[in-house]
Amino acid sequence: MERTVTVVPEDGLHARPASKFVETANEYDSEITVAANGDEPVNAASMLAVTGLGVKSGEDVVLAADGPDEEAAIDALEDVLTTPEDEYE
Amino acid sequence: MSETLDGVGVTPLSGLGNARWYRPGEHPDPEDVTAADPETERERFDEARATAREELETERERTAERVGEEEAAVFDAHLQFLDDPQITDGVEDAIDDGAAAEAGVARSFDAAIEQFEGMEGMMAERADDMRDIRDRLLRILSGGERIDLAELPEGTVLLAERLTPSDTAQLDPERVAGFATMTGGRTSHAAIFARSLGIPAVVGVGDALAEIEEGADVAVDAENDAVIVDPDEETRERVATEREVDVRAERVETADGREVEVAANLGTSAELEGADAQGADGVGLYRTEFLFLDRESPPDEDEQVETYAEALDAFPEGRVVVRTLDVGGDKPVPYLDLPEEENPFLGNRGIRRSLGDDGDLFETQLRALLRAAAEGAGTLSVMFPLVATVEELDAALERVDEIASDLDEAGVDYAVPELGVMVETPAAALMADEFAARVDFLSIGTNDLAQYVMAAARENDAVAHLHDPRHPPVLRAIDRAVEAAHDNDAWIGMCGEMAGDPELTELLVGLGLDELSMSAVTIPDVKAQVEEIDTADARDVADRALAASTKGDVRRILDQES
Asked: Which InterPro entries does the record associate with it (chain B) (predicted)?
């Protein structure tokens, strides 16, 4: 399944939001990818790939997951991307 | 036949020993390795990763112990990349296509490095981290010997193209006679660590260093900015004689009784002990960047309180001058996403960021400082970097007031520290009277002041001759600031490299500085100098230097005195 999400945290997909995103992606068994600006989707469980996208706050990304827990994974990742950084645990 | 190579000495120390090359990036060409079957190559890759992980964990622990958690954080980033699926998938794909593990590692990392090199600021820094991990894996795969920097044989002079701060942190001052590198400058992190650890070091020697052979007899004469191969008997004796310097634990005064405070510049808790051992009266520049660098998120308020209080407790009778966060285009901080600037030294840095983009960080830091002022034993002073306008200073002072009221309302223990301004811009030197009227003290950062007064970048070798505090315009800027401070009942110190040069102590005392702050290792020399000085003679030297028209004239005036 796929879902388009607008990135909220001020840093975009860098620094803490990126670590949080990658950490979350690693918690699920499904294959998860994230794509930005119409580029090739990349592995959501890779800090390198995710920070390499260069996504800034306010930009859209496309999340795609395939596997037994795909829906939960996408929900959790959407949650990370739509939470302002200062509200992290 | 002895041969002398010129570099930049970063410690006033010298050492003699056997050359040992450290070449973490050397390995056979990965594409030349013949692959066995994919399964064997995959096993080789997994084993190399396991070895790399062990090495990194050992180094991380050692760095945390010897230098501090902040510096150790760089290893966390390395460990993370080691297991990154983008990298590992890339390696495994290459192996499936028939590549050897070496070629797989090289291709996969190189693709990632290329991707990051094209990016901005901190991402480009990451490319360096990835190069380090790539080279580590390739060395392990080729069965290359790992030089454990903590276990070098006694009397080693380490030679390298460059040393990272974490490399330097591994060195054991008891065993290492010194090190020399091709790249780097006086203010690089490796140089700063060498000074903290008291290791003789000459950096920026250039390609000539590569001609020194493994095992050669080498003297590192950092006092004279030189590396000497096969030194003659006379040089050996000069270098090998441990300089006898008496550490003066007590405060010193000039021969005619004027007290001059001699303090240490540092950036981590690990350096406090060394500063105390060299007889520092206190800390004249606590660089807080190190608390913020090499980590994924900023230190929180409590962590900062602990760090500042620790420094105050180390000098219960003294003063600790903390500089608020001073970052900009030339000091990458991962979570700040600093923009690449056309001209970082003239860009958004120091107080400009604290009052703008980094307002939240600034507020947290000030809260931590006010709390630490009440908690720690010594006297806390706080100064703001790169102030150019009175408006900036007023805004910063207003922040302090607001935070004090907040803490008051919350019933939290706090104290308002002494407040000061760094004189680093010509603007601050010209407006020093206005600044001094508003704060308790001024502190002159001569590295930046010389850079801006002379319009000559610190990092640019081509204009290094201009970047020298002996130029009369720099001396006149200093003089103006000192006079403005004293006219307005403020004390004034100096915390640039100039303060730690014993040849300039008389001049600086003559100019009227109340405090000199420097790398710990130069404190005993400067304290010894202070005790020899007669204030009236020193004033005379300063007057003549201020009247000189050229740097050459200033040098001649100083030479007559020594």
From this structure: PEP-util_enz_mobile_dom, PEP-utilizing_PTS_enzyme, PEP_util_C, PEP_util_CS, Phosphohistidine_dom_sf, PTS_EI, PTS_EI-like, PTS_EIN
